[in-house]
Amino acid sequence: MELKPLELSNRRGVITGAGQGIGRALALEFGRRGGHLLLVGRRLDTLTETARLVAAEGGTAQVLVADLTLDGAVERIAQALATWETVDLLVNNAGNVRAGRLELSSDADVRSMIDLNLTAPILLTKALIPALRRGATERRSIILNVSSGIAMVAIPFYAVYAATKSGLSQFGEALRRESIGTGVHVATVYPGATDTAMMTSQNAGDELGWGRRPLEEVITELMVALAAGVYEINTATESRRVMQQLNITDPLAVDDALAPSLEALELAVRDHRSI
Length: 275
Ligand SMILES: NC(=O)c1ccc[n+]([C@@H]2O[C@H](COP(=O)([O-])OP(=O)(O)OC[C@H]3O[C@@H](n4cnc5c(N)ncnc54)[C@H](OP(=O)(O)O)[C@@H]3O)[C@@H](O)[C@H]2O)c1
Known about the structure:
Blueprint: E1 12-16, H1 21-32, E2 36-41, H2 44-56, E3 60-65, H3 73-81, E4 89-92, H4 107-135, E5 141-146, H5 159-178, E6 184-190, H6 215-228, E7 232-234, H7 238-249, H8 251-258, H9 262-269
Parallel strand pairs: 1-2, 1-4, 2-3, 4-5, 5-6, 6-7
Helix pairs in contact: 1-2, 1-6, 3-4, 4-5, 7-8
């Protein structure tokens, strides 16, 4: 079936985790296209700065300080949108990571990743689906879920993060099919390693297959693909794409490729934490 292009201008809706990194960059992109955005995150100062930058790009933004893992956050977001005439955008971007050998992971970190990366976007989407359906005209409403390349090739020492991100991808795939005929377009982006604050405590580089891409490059590619109607947006590096392909045809060959560098990888990622 052919992809149907999406109009990205004048979008009205929510971006979670909009205070920095991928979320802020997406806010600026939608702002530049005349968007009106509700920016959600825990820190007022970074959200306010994003709102200022969105305004400088020609858009408008409100901020809502909320920890998405806490009871009541989703209701507060829905309430903030209740007076909006149109809601036609939801970007589930907020996410966190803690790497390391599973048995060394604290239960609190395991729960934190599941709560933020999986439960929160599911509950927020559930709450906003009726508004997104109403907001769809001849222009479809957009749900964009920010997953990860790790959902395509599960990398050792990221077992919990991989579980949450592949869960989010499957959620999106099911919802895309559930949304046929409703005017809601569900897309999933799979960023590879991207240069943001989330990656500052991670020390794996090119030699371990973790070459990072600049944020601007990734976001430009993402917006072009989204506008073209692509619903599975992969921004991985070329070498990672080769591994993704191999993981489909011969997953044990990926095990063999990773085995010699397991120790080095564990060492390089053991401090990786954004919780
Ligand atoms: N960077 C990468 O290499 C990469 C690769 C693949 C996928 N991703 C995914 O892309 C998304 C964005 O990543 P990023 O690199 O931009 O990360 P980031 O720089 O760490 O930004 C995460 C954002 O989420 C917000 N956030 C964190 N915990 C929250 C909570 N409990 N409630 C509400 N907001 C919360 C943070 O703001 P506050 O601290 O103010 O709440 C922040 O704005 C994540 O889902 C991540 O898993 C990133």
